[in-house]
Amino acid sequence: MCGIVGYAGSRDCSDVLVDALSKLEYRGYDSAGIAVFENGEIKVSKAQGKLEMLRKKMEAEGKPHGCVGIGHTRWATHGEPSDVNSHPHSGADVTIVHNGIIENYRELKDFLDSKGVEFVSETDTEVVAQLLNYYYDGSPLDTIIKTIRELEGSFALGIIFAAFPDRIYAVRHESPLIVGVGDGENYIASDVPAILKYTRDYYLLDHDEIAVLTKDEVRIYDEHKELVSKELMTADWDESAAEKGGYEHFMIKEIHEQPNAINMTVKPRIRDGLPNLEECGITHENIKDFKNIFVVACGTAMHAGLVGKYVIEKLARVPVTVDIASEFRYRSPIVGEGDLVIIISQSGETADSLAALRLAKSLGAKTLAIVNAKGSSIAREADMLIYTHAGPEIAVASTKAYIVQLSVMYLFAFELALAKGRITEEKCRKLTASLLGVPDIIEKILKSSLEKSQYISTKLISADSLLYIGRGLDYALSMEGSLKLKEISYIHSESYAAGELKHGTISLITDEMPVIAVVTQSDLLEKTVSNIVEVKSRGAMVIIISREDFTIDEKAYDFRIDIPAMDDMLMPMLAAVPMQLVAYYTSVLRGNDVDKPRNLAKSVTVE
Ligand code: AGP
What we know:
The longest helix has 24 residues, at 425-448. The chain starts with a strand and ends in an 18-residue tail after the last helix.
């Protein structure tokens, strides 16, 4: 996912732009560039590779000097990573940076070709720059409005016009974009970490809004050129939250932030020992009649939904369907009045999840969003909203966001079961007290399982492929363990229901195929152990993530990570931690870019 920054103020802004871009590196990128007004001229410097390459190029060729400019980190979609495909892109009168995908860029390019426009890159972004240039009539705002009406797809744009050296323009159409408000200086950025060093005050641009920034003024218009008044937001976390704080990687920092993240998310929603979600628009009255529940999300967020399914069905006896958002939106789901659709999303901007939310609403279902990013699209469009308070999650691989998504699913399940009269207040208090005890136990696990996880990762680093297995909640959890491992270690991993292995997949088992078994559910212990013995007897190296009160024959496994025991239902919140640690250390040992794994973006705001 690309990163956009912009500055209008009194500082020499090349360094400001590059510094701001460095705070967006977590989004993943393969090239970077800036464009700065210097003595009335637009000076562009851009390079393939990391920001260091851009810095080196500017040192060699001279850094642009000026007080107004835009910058970009590119995650290639159209055209391979190269200097010429890097942003910014220009027409004669205009220079832009872009995040998103222009789906009709080919027909627009053909139109511009027919008008004699020549292109130097393979990007969809240059088509936008040339279309702005084609429509440019001396009025930037009219030009922008006319141009964006022709664009299909998702885009956020940072734009500077050669004839207006004191200002930058910003447009949001699906892809997020904020306007940072400083003292005598203003900013645009794709995300808050980019501006935190300079200001914590910002406007969130809404769909098809256009911002015009000079050093002293911010004006925001809608697509009809009407001025829009916006609420000024204030980031409630400081810059250090978006820094590593002494940890080697954001991921290991965020794994260690999990106890605090759970406390910040759960404690404010407990009153007199019971869940209280009234601040989220949720009361017994407005949830007790839901007949069917759908949980729709992507990746790790979907895996949190899988755990939620087991808990909600067990306690509240309401059928729960968990869907991958990109499947849900195209399968003509049987959803309507009386149903609840829960959208889980850390970023609140995942394109498929946002589209699923809109589809669910159009079908008449009530919607509940569980989101970490304040003010994000999914947060603003859902009927009911439970924010997770994990703070900014910078590492691409989600850890603390996942664990707080679990905590919210538990809170909601307890509340729903109580509202439906399926559990007593006493039972609900007991479950809630257990949930409140999880952070302290995770603190212990972080100390007790860290070295073992490191050791076990040394046994995995040369594997080409491995299986993650479990039953029930352990199976739901193994889905997340498998994704965590493969997305940052690049070892192929597959999660499999332990009881299903004998129906085909067990043919894969050799001494080259490690198996990680999650074994935390008392009622399934015996069955899972028999599945473990099945793979062990066929030569697999077996690692089990289990609980210290389980007696398991040592001949059934090679390595074991034990975690403290608590209510079976809450064990996923504990077992997730060693899974995360094993994935992290395996990735580190394999020398991978742990926080920014290849090919991945932190939030997938395009289809
Ligand atoms: C998490 O480790 C992954 N990087 C990814 O699967 C992520 O969970 C998914 O893209 C959904 O993102 P969201 O929670 O921001 O919607």
